[in-house]
Structure formats: C-alpha cells, structure tokens
Write a structure and sequence with these properties.
By secondary structure, the chain is of the alpha/beta class. Helices cover 29% and strands 28% of the residues. It is built from 16 helices and 31 strands. The strands form 7 sheets. The protein has a 5-stranded mixed β-barrel. Helix 10 runs antiparallel to helix 12. The longest helix is centred in the middle third of the chain and has 21 residues. The chain is rod-shaped, with a radius of gyration of 50 Å.
Length: 671
C-alpha cells in the first residue's frame, strides 16, 4: 500500500496517469483508497495507454513485464519478496529440464504469473485427485502458491511422493501466512465466535476464514464493519475473537474493533439494571479468554522508522520472520540482517521499514538501526568537534569519496585533502585517514569533511607541545629535514630549528650536506629561542669534541707527519693536520735551501712530510718544518749507508758549511 501511494504521488509529480495491473490488493476498502489516490486498475496492459504501471504483489510473468516495456510504461514492481523467490526457483528448475508441479488455484494471478517463469514443463494442480492424475515422471520439483493452505499442501505432497521417486519438495508458502493461520486457529479454539476481516476475493483471507470456521462454526467473513450482523453474538456472554487477512488495511481492522466496542456500549445501555451488575461484568471479564478490550490492547501500533523488539519465529535461506506483537509478523531480508547467526526464539531489535508490503507483511531491517546509530554517533562527534576515522574509496570530480564510521560516505574536496595542492587524488584511495566534519546535510544525510584541517590542528598541537619542552642550553634530538646554503633545518617534533653552517663543525664547511644527511637523527644543543618570531638556533658542533683539546698529546714536538697543503701565504704554507687544526710551515722551513716564494716548492693539495717544532694550545698555533723533516730523513739514510774498506772509527773530513740567514717571522695576523 505504501509503495502504491508513493508511486501515485510520483506519477502526479510527473504529470502521467498511474495504473495497476489488476487490483493491487484483494480488499475493496483498500482498492477504493488507492483509486482515490489516482491509481486506476486495468485488466490488460493494452488498457494502460501511457504513464506508470504498478505490478501487484502477486507478480506477473516475464512476458507481461516485457510487454509493459515495449509499450513504454514506467514499471513499479510491487511483487512480494516471497513470490519473487518462488519465480526464481521455478525458472532455475525449468532451465535444468526438471518438470515443475505448481500447487495452487489455477485462476489465481499469482499462480498464472509464476507459471510464466517456467521455461519447461509446468503442471498446475489444486487437489489430491489432480495429483493422482499427473502423468508418470521420474523426477520433478514441487512448489506451492505462497498463500496455499499448509494442511492441503501436506496431503498433496504425500500423494506426489508416492508417485515420483525423485521429488524435490520446496514449501514456498509464505511464513507469515502459516504463522497467521496457526494463530487464528489457536484463537478460534478459545472463543465462541470469530470475525475475520478482509477482502472476500483474497485467497489469503478466504483460507484464514476457512481455517477458523473449521474450528469455530460461528465464524463470519466481513470486508467492513457495516457487514457485521446486529446482535451477531451476545458480547456479555460470549467470547469474541477477531482476525485479519494479510491484505487487510489497518483502518479496516480498527473500524471493526471500534464497531464491536460501540455495540457493546449500546447493549449495556439498553439492558435493564441488574443488582451488582458491575461486579458481574468484572468477574466475566476476568474469566474471558479474549475480550474486545483485550484485543484493542494487543493491537500494537507501528509506523515506518520505529524501533521495536521482536522474537524470531521462523528462519529461511532468504528471510527471517519476527513476531513484533503486531497483527502481522515482520520479515527481514538476509541483506538487512546484521546478526547473521540468529536462532528461533532469539529477541532482536529491528526497525519498521514498511507497515504493509501489499500482502500484509511488515518489512523490517536491522541494518537501518546500525546506520542510524552510526549517523547519530557522527553527529555527536561533529558537535563535539572530534575527528572521525575514514578510508579513501573513490576519486571523483572535485575531490575524494571516503567511507567513514558505520559505512557512511563523506566527500572530501580536493582543497581539503592536504596543506598543499594535490595533483593525483587517486593516491588516497584505500588509505586510512582522520577527517574533521565541516558541513552536514541532515536531510540527505551527507557530510563534507576535511583532512587538511586535521593536519593543521595536529601540527599546531605538536608545535605548542614542542615549544613547551624547549629551553636554551638544552640538548634535544631531532631529524634533519632539509638543507639550505646557510644551514640545515631540523624537525624537533612539531617545530623546526636551524643549525647555521658555522655551527655544523669546528672546521670550515662548504655545504651542510658535507656533514649531515637528510632524515638523519641528530643530537643538537639549543643555542637561542625567539618565541615571538618562532625561531630556534641550534648547534651541532657544540656537542662534538673540540679539535684543540689535548693537542700536545696528539702532536708532540719532534713528531714526523704526512699531511696536505691547504693554503699558501707569502710568509708560508698551512698544513691541515685534522679538520679544524692547521699548522704553519714558515717560508724558511719550506725547503733545505733558501727560497724566494713558497709557490716555488709547494702547491695547494700537495702531500708533504713535516716535523712538529712547537705547539701553543692557548694561541692555537702549531709550528711545522719541512726542512727539518727532510734533514732527518737524509741523516737516517746516511747512517744506514756503509763505506767499504774504511774502519768505522776513521776520521771524516768536514766540508765547510755556509751559514744560513735568519728565518723570517710570520706576521702577527697570520692564520
């Protein structure tokens, strides 16, 4: 009914007529209500010239569906879920070449539509006699009309099993129908009279009436309250039961209950006063199995979107049937179930999706509850300015679709993905991320979120925490992130500090990459903090050993070393002993003989042997000599040379030695 009303409204909005192929529901009251909404019943597809057509809950054959499409009609399928499942079973069996035995009323629209889905042999039977008249066959599939009598079905199946060796029996009677009939029979056994409310053309209602009448002879079938005979039963002496067919609208059932209550009130007013009548009525009510007042109390009112608790009463491969205390049980499709492992008798929380699907079934969902709770949790986080967990799902025009908590989808604009421009949005697909909700459309349940704001806020928090821990003179750890010509930037955990190139090493540095590497973890000393300008000066060399410490032990006077010339000046040459420590070879000590220019005997980069002449740690000066190193080497070689034929103590004639000029002192400002 609800689907039909929605379709009628949609048709009116589009400005096209709305038809139903046959009566959507076998109840005159409901048909009239649908007609008032603008839904016109037609018996043939040809009678619907153009517009929208509703396929009723009984279903139609695929040929009828194709005819609707060829005619250009907008199809709205209201076929019951149980009937669609029946169609699928019949089609699969026909495709396998297995004959189908369809148990049901041959003229019923559901049976006719189901037969159209069978691509092979299909036999329609309605009685045990017809089952006996079937031709011989080795195997077959037996199915039933969804509203067929369970008792009659069992009898027919017993005959078929005796005749067909390989019989595949599928009881396709709607679970709600079976349960409703069982409850009606139980009620009929407790009361003196029964009123069955529903359409007289409805097979479901008629079978309900027949089941009740077989137990309670005083049973009547009415379509509306006016059809109840006056004084049908003495309400004060008899127990009255009321049952409704699956296709009976709520208002028809309530109308009958109201009419019975009104009749009770009139009867009470017309009766002569009796002593202690109130006490007698009270005693009668206490002893009644089911009075009209009790019936009214047990009629649970439900609405779409309502959350109720019910008991699982039947489980099939495709659906779960739940008793929610309503006149009809509810059905949940497996796809709408969250708790996959449920058992008979389990109490579960469900949401009402539709009060009536056209066959009297209440459609329920567990997933809707989960989705609603997930949405409420998201809205709470939105109000509290909290972050949400998400995973990138799809790159779309203008941004990224992400799946957030509870399966809700969020749109992240490209400008909100990162702090810098993102060229390839697809890189975020499949990536977990934290988002902040920045906009919500509660009507459409859509949210817009930002990853950029999360990054900015987290960085701001890290920066504030880092500044709290920093103080001048402290030694901290950091990660080298980038280089500049003037120094290296180090990440201190949310805030960057600079190591100036002069604070990288005790020796001269051409570029920061000569000392450090990107992503290298280093210990640095905080030299200065400027909180207003957010500048941090760091030192690296300050934590390294000073090259002039213990210099006398490392380079004792008289030691011979081999090092390279690093600089040449007019007064001499500087020799690098180690990074940060240079020694001076005066021009007078550059060669064995007097020279005019240092460049005449030495070049930058040339390796030379030098002798340590003096070390002054306080002045940071070391005097070196190439000449004395060469002289020592010559002396050693001469000592090692032996002259044959002369005794070791023979006198040696000394050659005249020319006096060397005094050494030139290095200027006071020499390096």
């Amino acid at each position: 009914m609800e689907i039909a009303f929605q379709a009628a409204r949609e048709a009116r909005e589009k400005g096209v007529p709305c038809y139903s192929l046959g009566e959507l529901i076998h109840n005159p009251e409901a048909v009239q209500a649908l007609h008032n909404e603008g839904i016109i019943p037609v018996e043939r597809v040809e009678d619907a010239q153009s517009g929208m057509i509703l396929l009723r809950s009984h279903g139609v054959s695929p040929q009828v569906e194709e005819q609707c499409r060829r005619q250009g009609l907008i199809i709205r399928d209201c076929t019951c879920a149980s009937v669609r499942a029946l169609h699928s079973i019949v089609r699969e069996s026909g495709e396998k070449g297995i004959p189908v035995i369809l148990v049901g009323e041959p003229d019923h629209p559901e049976v006719q539509g189901t037969a159209g889905w069978c691509t092979g042999e299909c036999f329609i039977i309605h009685s045990e006699m017809e089952a006996e008249a079937l031709p011989p066959m080795d195997r077959a599939l037996a199915v039933s009309q969804t509203t067929f009598s369970p008792a009659a079905w069992e009898k027919i199946i017993s005959h078929l099993k005796a005749r067909i060796p390989l019989l595949d029996v599928r009881c396709t009677i709607c679970p709600a129908t079976q349960i409703r009939q069982a409850e009606a029979r139980a009620l009929a056994a407790q009361v003196d009279a029964m009123v069955v409310v529903g359409g007289k053309k409805s097979a479901n209602t008629r079978k309900l009436y027949e089941a009740c009448k077989a137990i309670c002879p005083r049973t009547i079938l009415v379509e509306r309250a006016e059809e109840i005979p006056p004084h049908f039963a003495d309400i004060h002496k008899n127990h009255i039961g009321i049952a409704a067919g699956a296709s009976t609208p709520d208002w028809s059932f309530k109308e009958v209950v109201t009419r019975m209550n009104e009749q009770e009130r009139i009867d009470q007013e017309t009766q002569e006063p009796v002593a202690n009548v109130e006490q007698e009525v009270q005693e009668n009510q206490e002893n009644q199995a089911l009075t009209m007042e009790d019936i009214e109390k047990t009629v649970v009112r439900i609405r779409p979107g309502q959350t109720v608790t019910g008991t699982v009463v039947q489980i099939t491969d495709d659906e779960v049937c739940v008793n929610i205390g309503y006149k009809s049980d509810g059905l949940i499709k497996r796809s709408e179930m969250v708790e996959k492992d449920v058992n008979l008798g389990d109490e579960i929380e469900v949401e009402v999706v539709k009060v009536n699907d056209g066959e009297g079934n209440v459609l329920l969902s567990q997933r809707n509850i989960v989705n609603r709770k997930a949405w409420e949790a998201l809205m709470e986080k939105f109000e509290n300015n909290e972050y949400i967990d998400a995973v990138g799902k799809e790159a779309v025009k203008g941004g990224l679709l992400a799946s957030v908590e509870g399966g809700v989808r969020a749109f992240v604009p490209a400008s909100q993905l990162a702090q810098r421009y993102v060229e390839k949005i697809g890189q975020f697909v499949g990536q977990p991320m934290k988002l902040k909700i920045i906009d919500v459309d509660k009507t459409k349940k859509r949210i817009v979120a930002s990853r950029k704001q999360v990054i900015e806020e987290e960085n701001a928090a890290k920066k504030a925490a880092a500044w709290e821990k920093l103080e001048e003179g402290a030694v901290v750890k950091g990660i080298v992130r980038r280089f500049a010509d003037f120094g290296a930037f180090v990440d201190l955990g949310g805030v960057d500090g600079l190591i100036h190139i002069t604070d990288l090493a005790w020796s001269r540095v051409g570029h920061p990459s000569d000392v450090l590497q990107i992503n290298q973890e280093v210990e640095v000393k905080v030299l200065s903090l400027d909180r207003e300008r957010e500048r941090i000066q760091l030192g690296y060399k300050q934590l390294q050993p000073k090259p002039w410490d213990n210099i006398e032990k490392k380079y004792p006077v008289g030691a011979i070393l081999e090092r390279n010339v690093v600089r040449i000046r007019p007064f001499g040459a500087f020799i690098e002993l180690e990074p940060g420590v240079d020694g001076l070879v005066h021009i007078s000590q550059c060669a064995l003989t007097r020279i005019a220019k240092v460049e005449d005997v030495l070049q930058v980069g040339q390796p030379v042997r030098v002798k340590v002449l003096a070390v002054d740690p306080e002045a940071k000066r070391i005097s070196l000599s190439i000449r004395e190193a060469l002289a020592d080497e010559a002396f050693v070689e001469e000592e090692a040379l032996e002259i044959p034929g002369e005794p070791e103590d023979a006198p040696v004639e000394e050659a005249p030695v020319e006096e060397a000029p005094a050494e030139e002192a290095a200027p006071a400002d020499a390096e």
